[in-house]
Amino acid sequence: MNLQPECFTRDIWEKFINNEPGDFSRIRPEVLSSWERCRGKIDPYKDKSNQVLPVEEFQRIRTQNREMIDIAIQVMENLYNFVRGSGFAIDLMLVENGSLIVSDERIGDPEALKLLVKVKAVPGSIWSESVIGTFAPTLALHYDRPFQILPYENWCACLHDGTTSAAPIHDPDTSRIIGMLVMIGTYGMVHQHTLGMVIAAVDSIEKQISARRMAKASEIAHQHKNLIMECFADGVIALDEFGGITHANQKAINIFGFEENPLGKNIFTLVRSPYGASRKNFDLVNVINSKETVIDQFIDIYNASEMIRCVVSMHFLYSDGKRIGKIITIQKISRAARLIANTLGNYAQFTFNDLIGKDESFLNCLETGYKVSKSDSNILLLGESGTGKDLFAQAIHNASSRCGQTYIAINCAAIPRDLLGSELFGYVEGAFTGAKKGGSPGKFELADGGTIFLDEIGEMPLDMQSVLLRVLEEKAVTRIGGDKAIPVDVRIIAATNKNLAKEVEKGNFRSDLFYRINVVFIEIPPLRDRPKDIPLLISHFAKKLSFRMGKKIDYINPDVYEKCCLYDWPGNVRELQNVIERAVNLCEGNTISSGIILEKLNIPDNDQSVSRFIKAQKLKKSIKTLEHQTILTCLEKNRGNMLNTARELGIARSTLYRKMREIERR
After folding, report:
1. In DSSP terms, which residues pair with 166 in a beta bridge?
2. Which member of 254, 355, 550, 559 has the lowest number of beta carbons within 10 Å of its beta carbon?
3. How many structural domains comprise the chain?
């Protein structure tokens, strides 16, 4: 750019401000346009800006531009190192809502700084074109490009002692002008390169703002990534293409037992000594080295102190279609089991508070159940079908120290004989045709740390009984087709409606297993022996079921209670619940009547039949009383010897014990 200094004399400026004729053709169009905007509006002889921001507003703007100011200060210092001693000063101006505001940041030689003092460029003063007229920063702001102005191109006479070079500073994200870098010097020292240095400095400022923001965004993204990965309930490890660890969340670090930050280290080195022998972790190494995605493979991971059974998956990371790394997710089987159990609805829902009854024998069962829940002893629940053995098992689990762990229920009678072994104990890959790749854990592994409820255990085949006995004795399972014993910590609650003592005598149930599971037994009384509880249960089920069905049941006829108490309830509590559910469904009003109940049950519905029914019940009670008297007489005769008494009566000893408990309850 040719500045042509001979064109810009005070004479030309005076002629223009005084509206005198003159040759203004050689004045740059941008300067001339600015002069025209200023003529008649701005006093060219003013010696300062008469607009100064309030201190609070000025500080707010500075705080808002703190990022740019901090970077600009460093750049200004570097720039001044190049021009030190040459009569220049460097000043930073802020831009807010189209206004130029003098900032605190300035550096330079004394003679140049005196120029700023002379024109009273105090921090917080506004130096926009509408205030100070034509000036390099005002033109740079107006045209959004760098400008250099010679002394007599300035509109105000107070600026005629120096030349200014200015370049706008843009926000890298919005392209909005947020500041102005200005270099001021005497006319004799000015050069075209002066403006070039200002432009280069502004470019540096903008790039540093952009770099700082990118670094900050990257740091935030990194923190978000870390937070997200730490929020995973599973262990997560990210690997590069060579097996180097680029990220590992705390859960993964805990599983592997890493004693130091593993970032940057090779996964294959860490899973070997000192954290574990490579031959032990070969399954993990195979997963990491797999050429294909791995989904939910069951493996054992060894660290320095223990073996942890896990479910492991491996996914590839891609960039431009090329594999650049892997993500390994590790989930402890105990947690996976809880998720599976909850998903399938196989979890302990009931507590002792949910078990309804006030019959003394039933309350004794509750008391015993609550006491034994505090230990890890195996429990055998006896009782007819429908008495609520599964509810008792759930309540015991929820009252135990294992309540936060897995609860799995297995009905031994419902699983085909050929599948029961793999269901309970799991299998290894290739154990049989159709076996899942990687094998599969059994219910005992999944219940590790928790409770397994073996319902209808009397139906378990003898060969499975032998395996179960070994599991109880060794506290370890061996998957079908495998040879490795896997330690398990499982509490067993078994249940049956059979007389296991008689099944032992018949050879249908192993005696050693019977004694193993019969550490504590609880015999749940049938509903017919709990007549006091029938009205309670009717009210409870009616309220619960009507709420579930969205019906309003306000009243239950008293005869419903009376006639239900006359029924034997061979299906026990389950049958009673089904009957009440049917009654709620069929109830057309808000009252349950006995008519709906009698349609379902074989209960007499007239006075004469009721009388006969009551007589029959009394006869049953008389027979029961006679039976009890016979037992007591025989027991007395045998001087309390239970074995001899049972032999003389022709019944099993367990049956004699049960009948003695009935006698005690009466």
Report:
1. 147, 182
2. 550
3. 5
